[in-house]
Design brief:
Length: 220
């Protein structure tokens, strides 16, 4: 775990410029989100947007929306389910918290910041009485094995502990279950060859007879 002091809180409009700069450092080859899209995410579902803040500024971010999972379970891409990052498909009638993005300062990865962000999502899921968290994670380690095996077999070997993937191995440690592979999830993700692993975390405190609640403030 990290030695630096981390605070997890909801994203604020004034965080947007710093988030764009952080995302550009994490993904130097991919254009970061625009100010407009980040504002739209906050307007659509402010409770689902969280950041990790260190002593010197933001060090991580996790974005999510609520979906009716039956509408997307068969097949989808990141662009389709997130409305190309606008979160237009957010549906408060759903029972699934969908993890759209997580990123951590590249200079601080491996120090537990990702865990804090994932725990923030779990707190959100429990507080809202959502059934589960579902996400599709990149498979950045697949590039080295793409000529030798399918993406599904690669992911299975990660689950079995025979291989280590920077993303899927972490997600398994965070208590998520592997459900399969989705093709063409992010086609421009060359390291993953466009593939992503479908993962789920079931909320043990979920009560199906209770409605979903979206409080104005959730203690993260």
């Amino acid at each position: 775990m990290t030695d630096i002091k981390i605070k997890v809180r909801n994203t604020r409009p004034e965080d947007i410029p710093e988030l764009i700069a952080l995302q550009a450092r994490v993904y130097p080859g991919i254009p970061p989100w625009s100010r407009r899209k980040l504002r739209e995410q906050l307007e659509v579902f402010p409770q689902g947007q969280i950041v990790a803040e260190g002593e010197n500024g933001l060090v991580g971010c996790a974005s999510s929306l609520i979906v009716l999972w039956d509408d997307w379970s068969e097949s989808h891409s990141w662009k389709e389910i997130t409305g190309a990052g606008t979160f237009d498909n957010h549906n408060p009638l759903g029972r699934t918290l969908y993890g759209a993005e997580v990123f951590v300062d590249p200079n601080l990865q491996g120090q537990g910041i990702g865990h804090f962000l994932y725990e923030g999502r779990r707190k959100l899921c429990r507080a809202m009485n959502l059934k589960r968290i579902i996400a599709c994670g990149r498979l950045p380690g697949y590039r080295a094995y793409a000529h030798d095996m399918s993406a599904e077999f690669y992911a299975q070997k990660v689950v079995w502990g025979d291989l280590v993937d920077p993303v899927l191995s972490f997600q398994i440690k965070e208590g998520f279950s592997y459900c399969g592979v989705i093709e063409n999830y992010i086609p421009e993700d060359l390291d993953s060859h466009g593939y992503a692993s479908l993962i789920v975390w079931l909320n043990p405190e979920y009560h199906p007879e209770r409605p979903v609640t979206i409080p104005e403030h959730i203690a993260l």
